[in-house]
Amino acid sequence: MDLSIACALYFAARGRGTVQPESSEDAVPYTTSARVLLSGLGADELFAGYTRHATAFSRRGLSGLSDELKLDYLRLGKRNLGRDDRVISSWGREVRYPYLDEDFLRWALRLPVWEKCGFGQSSAPASLSTEEDDEPSLELSKKVLRLLAWKLGMKSAATMKKRAIQFGARTAKMEAGKTKGTQILS
Fold it and tell me: Cβ(100)–Cβ(42) under 8 Å?
């Protein structure tokens, strides 16, 4: 189990923290009553969201990228699903994985790799041009999802830099002697 990811999920699933209302500068304590949580698991594995996908493309082109995506998808169950479900259910919550929905998966797995991400492409399709911006400047990873967000008016989400959960939660910096939070525990 990747401890840094498990810890980040554990504390997120707890459902306690603070929120900052738009009308105030002060953070307010918040506890969610939600019993079901949504996970983005599968988006990176299906749409080339990891740095290793860019590396695979630069070394072996679209064929190498396609092989890497297939490898990631096939190991999702063993590597991620059990860990995530166990950690989140420890708080009495259930997790749903919209990117792993059977119909969505069927569509995503049939999609040609060059339509999933922007590796090897120079810019966004002209059909997404707007009066404000002629072409969105988007990261190449998960480009199909970024273009969809852009088209739906979620421009801030579309242009957001990818940040892995363990780095956003800072659990990757956990250390105990020579053991780091990103090391795998068995």
Answer: yes
